[in-house]
Every structure is written in structure tokens, then in C-alpha cells.
Task: structure prediction
Amino acid sequence: MMASEAEKTHALLQSCTTESLISSIGLGIFCLLADKFLQFSVIQQNDWFRAFSDNAVHCVIGMWSWAIVIGIKKRSDFGEIILAGFLASVIDIDHFCVARSLSLKAALTLPRRPFLHCSTVVPAVALTLRFAMYLFKLKDSWCFLPWMLFISWTSHHIRDGIRHGLWLCPFGKTSPLPFWLYVVTTSSLPYVCSFVMYLTGTGQMMSSKHGVLIDV
Result:
């Protein structure tokens, strides 16, 4: 059910709390410091350490972003946050799928970008998942999943975009994203998704599930 005008206004006000602003600034600072940290030679000289560290940053950004969306109100919320981190980092498995090898060197030297790194795949998969949940009448308690996937995968793509640009198949790819745009977009993504979730009624169902209003 679509939100009423009063609910839309409330959703907008919810996105401007002190806690959410502090969390968003913290996420931006983390993005800034983490990628600077990864440039240290001790990390760059070891392929496994570099790959693990890079993937760990994707994971933390995914978890942090979803934590901003739902707020951490009770212990069970950590399960969702961990799942968001897993979704943000698991994308990189497509490197090994395309390489058809468990060799890290083969996975890092592909002649083309692997399929899950096509940015137009993200909304397509999220919408397909939403349709499948509707078709099979899955419980409202899982209504968050398409949004979690969208936020986690989009944050991964945006961060990769600072090196490679966004691959918008079949239209081509963009130039590498400016670093400041990556930080700003990543920090604001939870706000945008939370507001749209309220407009589409998902926010209200999630509020009922968590027992509180979504704290964005």
C-alpha cells in the first residue's frame, strides 16, 4: 500500500535525525580512510591481503549502510546487518566463476569485467526478487530483502566505480567516478532508499517487523 501524504512527510522527517546524520558522516569518513589505508604498499604488494582487505571494506560499507536504514534496536537486527555485509561482498565471487578457477591471479586478470559487475543487473535482480516474493506470497517479514540487495550491491558498484567506472550494459561504461562522488553517494544511499521504501509501503511493514519506525 502506498504511503499517505502524512506518512511521506513523516518519512522525510525521519531521514533527518541527529543519529542518522552522525552515522552517515561516520560512513563517509570510513569510506575516505579505508580506501586511503588500502593504498599502503604493505597491502598492495600481497594479492591475497589486498583482495581480502578490499572485500572486507565492501562488507563493512554494506553492513553500515543497512544499519543506517533499520537502526540497531535489538539483538536480532545484527542478523540483517551481517546478511547485508555478506551480499555486499559476495559479488566478487563472479571473478572466480568467469575465470573458472580458484586461482586468485586468474580471477584478478580477467579480460573483461564479470557479469555481476554490470550495474544494470542490480535493479533487474532486485525487481525480479521482489516479483518472485509477490508471486510465491512470501511473508512480509522478508519484504526488506530486495532493498537490502539493492543497497548492498549498489554500494559495491559505486566503490568499484572509482577505479573502473560504472558498466551500464548494454550502453557501455562511464569514466571512473570522482572519489568525492563515491563518498557522497555512498553516504546518502541509505537515506534515498529509506525514503522510497516509505513511499512504497515497505517502510511501514519493516517498522512493524522491527517494532519501531525505521531510523534513517
Observations:
- The chain is about 70% helix and 0% strand.
- The chain has a mean pLDDT of 85.
